[in-house]
Amino acid sequence: MKQTPKWAIKTVVPEEVYTDRQFFLDYFYEAAQKARTRRTMSTVLLGQRRMGKTEIFKRVVNRLFFEQDHLDPQAVVPIYYSFPDSFKDEWHFAREYVENFIRWYAAFRLRDKTLLLEESVDRETLMTVIREKIQITEGFQFSLNFLNSLFNKRITSPARVAVQHPRHVSDYDDTTIVVFLDEFQNTRLPQYQFDVVGYMQDAVESPTCPHFVTGSAMSILAREILGRGSLFGRFRSQSIEPLTDYWGTELTRKSAQYYNAQVSEEMAPIVCSRCGGNPFYINAVIQ
User: Fold this and answer.
1) Contact assessment for residue 61 and residue 161, using Cβ atoms and an 8 Å cutoff
2) Could you tell me how far CA 65 lies from the centroid of its own chain?
């Protein structure tokens, strides 16, 4: 019987097709584990669009979610968040960001991925589950209190405190939390009336709570957000490149087999070359 893969956040690329990103999977997983020793620095994964950056983050998060002893107080708690391209206002962002943190924290500690879905477990039920089933630390109690204060608008600077909150929890409890942020370029959009980027400096510098970030707009991310201003020098950098001819050809063959497409041995490297080694475009052509 085929074993059902474990995931907390659903990946897009089938296992039968996924090709040659093991270095990055291992790098970020090991960096997350190393955070327990307080020697991991926040890191950005840079690369052109459609290189599989989001897929890497999701796979690392799933591995952290299921391959650790979730009852171990020293386990690394993975948090995943993808910045949308719009928010109603600062309060909306802060509530969403903190609730997402609480859901991931609780889901990991209980190894129950249904807690991640608002349509599965609403906020009121989530709080009941947390109080009944989790040994709440002082730091995590701050989260529950903070979310309530956000809904009652009793915070002076909600966005600032929200982005720094995971660090506050890990620092206070002396535990390890690793935050994976996707579409990080959306922290700086002209329609925002608040500057999330400016608040991230303290958040990403905590040795107890490193942040791994990536995004689809490499030029904005590298030059405008991380290449200047408050976040300059706060991140290590890893660059992801197109697939080599070898791995691009291998992906073409795997994709053809998976999608029942007829691709000759001679055509496989040509498909790779014409697609520039971009895994998304290779799969799109085969499909």
Assistant:
1) no
2) 12
